[in-house]
Write a structure and sequence with these properties.
By secondary structure, the chain is mostly beta strands. It is built from no helices and 25 strands. The chain has a 17-stranded antiparallel sheet that branches. The protein has a two-stranded antiparallel sheet with strand order 7-8. The protein has a two-stranded antiparallel ribbon with strand order 16-19. The relative contact order is 0.10.
């Protein structure tokens, strides 16, 4: 049983074993979202594992998931802090997951595992741009799919894990399907620990990601004005984003890619055993080789006014794009176990 603010949840699960090979774990989750419009959700889930032999195992899982909050990332830029919104008054966001995978153990210190997945997303909320500066939410749907590979090795001095994922994420609003800021084609991580003398260890994590999709803030509106009417409203990449008064240009079918991202984090950890206590003081360096990765794109808007031949005003919003990165960030602390 779990209670968070005005949300309540209760879940049940069981494990069924059939001999030494087949394991089935059914479950169900009940949730109540006590907002201005109370909602309830029932989420069944099922996981299975089959031990083919001592080295090979197959697994599968499926389930339904709900949530009552969504972020503002769909607005068209990537921000450092995302603004959460409640689906109060609307439908709960729903996701259905399907997962198939397997594991291979060449020996008792090595494991190779893989998973393929497909996720259907329904009742997705999006904060649509409004010319009156008030949030307007619309509903859409989407899907995500991909494959994940994990290689894990435990050694006497060096233990490491290599993770790779290939994925696609799309959403659809108003009949237009596009890549979202959550779409990141390649993700590679190499993490591990190397034992040093006198109970010291060097822990590391190197990540490499291809660029995430985003809707650029740099666009211009090309409008052909003929006989008092706009006959063309074509959007092309440029330095600015523009719209005519009373209209909205939602760049759902235009996206860019952020630069590739890579970073190395390292930690030096000392293990001290005192009676029943284990103390691990550490020194940590984030972005140890000072890679200038863009964290997010921001916009700074001004307003420029122009006029049609008949004297009607046109308003164009100018948005400059800026990128930010993080320097080397040191930290220190200690973990306590007892």
């Amino acid at each position: 049983y779990h209670r968070l603010l005005n949300n309540y949840s209760f879940y049940l699960e069981d494990i069924w074993s059939f001999g030494n090979r087949l394991l089935i774990k059914p479950g169900v989750r009940f949730e109540a979202f006590d907002r201005s419009t109370p909602k309830t959700a029932i989420s069944p889930r099922l996981a299975m594992r089959y031990e083919y032999n001592e080295q090979i195992a197959l697994k599968a899982a499926s389930g339904i998931y709900y949530q009552s909050l969504f972020s503002s990332r769909e607005k068209g830029y990537i921000g450092l802090l995302e603004i959460p919104f409640s689906t109060s008054g609307g439908k709960l966001q729903k996701s259905v997951h399907y997962i198939l995978g397997g594991e291979y153990y060449p020996n008792n210190r090595t494991r190779l595992s893989t998973e393929i997945y497909y996720k259907m997303l329904n009742h997705i909320s999006k904060n649509r741009r409004s010319t009156v500066n008030s949030p307007v939410f619309i509903l859409g749907k989407g899907h995500a799919y991909g494959i994940e590979l994990i290689w894990k090795k435990i050694g006497d001095r060096l233990s490491y894990e290599l993770d790779y994922s290939l994925s696609w994420t799309k959403r659809k609003f108003g009949g237009v399907e596009y890549f979202t800021p959550y779409d990141q084609r390649h993700t590679l991580s190499f993490l591990g620990s190397y034992k040093l003398p006198k109970n010291w260890s060097l822990d590391f994590r190197w990540t490499f990601n291809s660029g995430r999709a985003y809707r650029p803030a740099r666009f211009a509106t090309e409008q052909i004005y003929l006989n008092g009417y706009f006959v063309n409203d074509h959007v092309t990449p440029s330095d600015y984003v523009g719209y005519a008064e009373g209209t909205e240009i939602d760049h759902t079918n235009i996206y860019g890619r952020m630069p590739m991202y890579h970073r190395l984090d390292i930690s030096f950890v000392k293990t001290i055993v005192y009676r029943k206590w284990v103390i691990k003081p550490f020194i940590n360096l984030i972005n140890s080789y000072y890679r200038n990765n863009p964290l997010y794109y921001d916009t700074k808007e001004t307003v420029k006014t122009s006029y049609t031949p008949e004297g009607y005003p046109l308003y164009t919003s100018l948005a400059k794009r800026r990128s930010f990165g993080i320097p080397i960030v040191p930290s220190f602390g200690a973990h306590f176990e007892f």
